[in-house]
Design brief:
By secondary structure, this protein is an all-alpha fold. About 80% of the residues lie in helices and about 0% in strands. It folds into two domains: about 80 residues; about 110 residues, Helix Hairpins (Orthogonal Bundle). It is built from eight helices and no strands. Helix 1 packs across helix 6 and helix 6 crosses helix 7. It is elongated and about 110 Å long. This is Potassium channel family protein.
Length: about 240
């Protein structure tokens, strides 16, 4: 385990807790349309958390060796922490919670994949609904002015159904939609692969059982043939 991995393992839980706090404050601010001193306080706390995300990225960059490959692999993280346009995407930090959950749950590998998929879908749908509502609510010509509409849109988008009854009109909203569609396709692939693996394993187990039963029957037939041979030899003598 290199220095970056050690740091990520140590900072993973604190970063997830910060992301959860960010999510609660962000959800409160967006759904309740908080104004005045309360909104100012929420923004201050969220900006502090944002600063901690930037500090975490900086520490990982300093610890990384070699730096160039690490920098290229983590361009998306850099964009999330630096671009105000992508503020809602900072909530993707919560996906680290899924990894922690997968390590803590004492179930089979396939079970962990199912836990990961269900948790990731739930988080992506909720986070995307909040984020798109924040970016679309007051946009000219918006179709996503309520949390209910945003949640419906997120479900339709992540399943790649795409009814077209609701869609984002802002650039940020379309970026969120693109990421949600990609996430939906990836998670669908994971679930499909897991199901296929389960079917193949069950068929393989049944095949092995049949082979074992057939071998047993053949062995019994051979034993009976040997007994018959002995009887024939005894009768002829």
């Amino acid at each position: 385990m290199n220095r970056v991995e050690k740091w990520e393992r140590q900072s993973e839980c604190p970063m997830v807790i910060l992301a959860l706090i960010f999510l609660v404050l962000y959800t409160w601010e967006v759904i309740c349309e908080v104004t005045g001193p309360t909104r100012f306080t929420i923004d201050v706390v969220m900006n502090i958390i944002w600063g901690l995300f930037i500090a975490d990225y900086a520490v990982r960059f300093v610890l990384a060796t070699p730096k160039r490959p690490w920098f290229i692999r983590n361009l998306f993280d850099l964009a999330i922490v630096l671009l105000p346009l992508l503020r809602p995407l900072r909530l993707l930090r919560l996906l680290a919670f899924v990894k922690i959950l997968g390590r803590k749950v004492s179930i089979s590998f396939r079970g962990k994949i199912i836990v990961y998929a269900v948790s990731a879908v739930t988080m992506l749908v909720f986070i995307s609904a909040i984020a798109v509502l924040d970016t679309e609510r007051h946009a000219p010509g918006t179709m996503l002015a309520s949390f209910g509409d945003a949640l419906w849109w997120a479900f339709v988008t992540i399943t790649t159904v795409g009814y077209g009854d609701l869609f984002p009109v802002t650039t940020t909203g379309r970026i969120i939609a693109l990421l949600l569609m990609v996430g939906g396709i990836a998670l669908t692939g994971i679930v499909t692969a897991t199901l296929a693996s389960w079917i193949v394993e069950n068929v393989s187990e049944e095949s092995e059982e049949h082979q074992a039963a057939t071998k047993k029957e053949i062995a019994e037939l051979r034993a009976e043939i040997r007994e018959l041979k002995k009887l024939l030899v005894q009768e002829t003598t």
